[in-house]
Amino acid sequence: MAFDLSSIKQTKGLAPPFLLVYGSAGVGKTTFGAQAPNPVFIQTEAGEGKLEINAFPLIRTFEELLEGIAALIENEHDYQTCVLDSLDHAEPLIWRRVCQDQGIDSVEKLGYGKGYVFALDYWRELVSALTTLRSRKGMAIILIAHTQIRKFESPDSDTFDQYQIKLHQKASALVQESVDAVLFAKHKILTKKEDKGFGNHRVRGIGTGERVLACTERPGFVAKNRFGLPDEIPLGWTEFEEAITNATKGA
């Protein structure tokens, strides 16, 4: 392909969001997805609880996962949001596919982490399919994942605990690079310093009952966004849309 000045095109501005929302079980991640415009769920786990949602049959293989996305790409429909619930339950499906390719029964048997490197090809295929769905159908994409606590070894500070996405680190890095925002869903906690006497103190966490989305990274968790969102917003689709609108106006 030859490039010259005539090949320059203006971008179309803000596309439907491509989000990764992660947090502990029961915090409200699936509810957030259900609040998005006319959503359809691709489920690798039955995590909807009492929510009434439109969903494909439970996905049991990586091939079925791609087939569900392809059905949304190739057929006419009115769905506006695709929710993949959950990403960490999709990961074993990818590992199983790697095992089938290599003729082994565990991704660990390849040694030296090679199985997880091979898995990245399938992660790229999945991200590519979802990106195609967004561009061709104008659909928002919401990836839901659970959280885990890992030691974070910072090059310029002591090691500390951090909430991270419950995926292998190579897969997590690839997905984080691909999405517009990584949002940490959590219960809002206030801290109170209590005097224990004799000059000793303790810090106690107090739950507020409020659930929020953390939009920018802190030492305690990973997060990012390309929208210019505030550090924290209430956990709800309406609040998320309002935050994007306000950020766009202020840009």
Number of helices: 6
The N- and C-terminal alpha carbons lie at a distance of 35 Å
* Largest pleated sheet: 9 strands, mixed
**Low-confidence residue ranges:** none
Proportion of strand residues: 25-35%
Structural class given helices, strands, pairing?
alpha/beta
Overall mean pLDDT? 89
Q: How many β-strand stretches? A: 9
- Measured as a percent range, the helix fraction is 25-40%
Helix/strand order, N-terminal first:
EHEHEHHEEHEEEEH
Radius of gyration: 20 Å
Task: Kindly describe this structure.
With 251 residues, the protein is an alpha/beta fold. The protein has six helices and nine strands, in the order E-H-E-H-E-H-H-E-E-H-E-E-E-E-H. It has helices at 29-35, 62-74, 87-102, 114-137, 169-178, 237-250, and strands at residues 18-23, 39-43, 81-85, 140-152, 160-165, 181-197, 200-214, 224-225, 232-234. Strands 1, 2, 3, 4, 5, 6, 7, 8 and 9 form a nine-stranded mixed beta sheet that branches. Helix 2 (62-74) links the parallel strand 2 and strand 3 (81-85). Helix 4 packs parallel to helix 5. The two termini are 35 Å apart. The relative contact order is 0.16.
